[in-house]
């Protein structure tokens, strides 16, 4: 008898969330252009720190696990070669934002200087860069995270 009661409790426990009022459902906060800009700027800064140290650690605060996994092979290759990709004097601006259900996509334009630095202390000269970085944001675990990203080739830049 107690065994069958245990199954009923399990059944009720699994059924209860489906019967909960809609007010208890998790609401995704709105993501406007200003909030998206702040999130994307912080994410690109974390990405820059990760490449400057060849370590995925800085990505954890702003990137979902699958986005970190997409960058991990590049960071591992830099670490194996004893190389870092440094950036300085960067000016970033949001050049495109499209809000969507539960998130959105944005493109940052980054202008600055970049160089390759070596583990032995040597480095190549600084060179001027202009790049555009696309990122998709999604609500996950009570916070906004980058779930997809990539550098856009000039032919795909937003006007």
Chain-wise SSE layout:
Layout: H1 2-19, H2 33-53, H3 65-81, E1 83-100, E2 103-118, E3 127-140, E4 143-152
Antiparallel strand pairs: 1-2, 2-3, 3-4
In short:
The chain is an alpha+beta fold and 159 residues long. The chain has 3 helices and 4 strands.
Description:
With 159 residues, this protein is α+β, with helices and mostly antiparallel strands. The chain has a single domain (29-156), classed as Nuclear Transport Factor 2, Chain: A. The chain has helices at 2-19, 33-53, 65-81, and strands at 83-100, 103-118, 127-140, 143-152. A four-stranded antiparallel sheet has the order 1-2-3-4, with helices on one face. A hairpin with a 2-residue loop joins strand 1 (83-100) and strand 2. The model has no long low-confidence stretch (mean pLDDT 87).
How does the helix and strand content classify structurally?
alpha+beta
State the low-pLDDT regions, or none. Answer: none
Count of domains: 1
Mind telling me which CATH architecture this is?
Roll
Q: Please tally the helical runs, counting DSSP H or I stretches of 4 or more residues.
A: 3
**And the CATH topology?**
Nuclear Transport Factor 2, Chain: A
Strand count, sense and barrel status of the largest sheet are:
4 strands, antiparallel
CATH class: Alpha Beta
Helical proportion, percent range: 25-40%
Distance between the termini: 70 Å
Q: Estimate the global geometry from the Cα principal axes.
A: globular
The total count of strands amounts to: 4
């Amino acid at each position: 008898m107690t065994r069958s009661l245990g199954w009923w409790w399990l059944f009720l426990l699994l059924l209860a969330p489906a019967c909960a009022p809609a007010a208890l459902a998790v609401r995704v906060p709105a993501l406007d252009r200003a909030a998206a800009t702040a999130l994307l700027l912080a994410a690109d800064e974390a990405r820059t720190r990760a490449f400057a140290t060849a370590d995925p650690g800085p990505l954890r605060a702003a990137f979902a696990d699958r986005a970190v996994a997409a960058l991990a092979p590049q960071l591992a290759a830099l670490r194996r070669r004893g190389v870092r990709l440094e950036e300085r004097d960067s000016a970033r601006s949001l050049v495109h934002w499209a809000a969507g259900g539960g998130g959105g996509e944005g493109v940052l334009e980054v202008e600055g200087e970049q160089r390759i630095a070596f583990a032995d202390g040597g480095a190549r000269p600084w060179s001027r860069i202009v790049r555009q970085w696309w990122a998709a944001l999604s609500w996950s675990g009570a916070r906004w995270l980058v779930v997809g990203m990539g550098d856009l080739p000039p032919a795909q830049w937003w006007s």
